TrEMBL record:
Upper classification of the organism: Eukaryota, Metamonada, Preaxostyla, Oxymonadida, Blattamonas
Name assigned to this protein: Pescadillo
InterPro entries, per database record: PES (IPR010613)
Region of interest (Disordered), residue spans: 1-23
Subcellular location, record wording: Nucleus
Organism: Blattamonas nauphoetae
Length: 159
């Protein structure tokens, strides 16, 4: 039938070019196992719905420990994909959950807290205890109030 996967030069998206032009009627329609055939005779590959934890950590630019804390605070858990994945030993997360974490205000707070702890350690190493105490007072606190507001919309529901 002439279905060969190729990579386009511009977008890097995997496409499958068909040698025969598919008709719009259901009689002679060309079916493909990867995805639906468009009207131009090209088939675009579906994007994955699940990504492994290592890839999610790389996308968010955080450490593995910080990623775990972030998932716990936002209530995001790993999922088992419906389709068979290549590696059963990996932990998979939904792509939309990772996008949600990228926009999360908790992520910015955790990054700011990490920066402030580095500053405090550096001043303690230099021997300036007073400056370190001042930095501890102005260090950002991680508010959990908005997490409670997301989970419980009304105060009565939280108890």
């Amino acid at each position: 039938m002439g279905l060969e996967p190729t990579t386009s030069a511009s977008g890097g998206q995997r496409t499958i070019h068909c040698t025969t032009e598919p008709s719009t009627s259901g009689k002679n329609r060309l079916l493909c196992m990867w995805s639906n055939v468009s009207s131009m005779g090209k088939v675009t590959a579906k994007k994955p719905k699940y990504i492994p934890r290592s890839q999610a950590v790389r996308k968010l630019h955080v450490s593995d420990r910080l990623f775990k804390r972030l998932c716990i605070l936002n209530g995001i858990f790993p999922r088992v994909p419906n389709q068979a994945m290549k590696d059963k030993s990996k932990v998979y997360y939904h792509v939309n959950d990772i996008k949600y974490l990228a926009r999360s205000p908790v992520l910015e707070k955790l990054r700011a807290k990490k920066i402030s702890t580095k500053r405090i350690r550096r001043t303690l190493r230099s021997g300036d205890q007073e400056h370190a105490d001042r930095l501890k007072k102005i260090a950002p606190k991680i508010p959990i109030s908005f997490v409670l507001k997301e989970r419980y919309h009304f105060f009565n529901y939280s108890s």
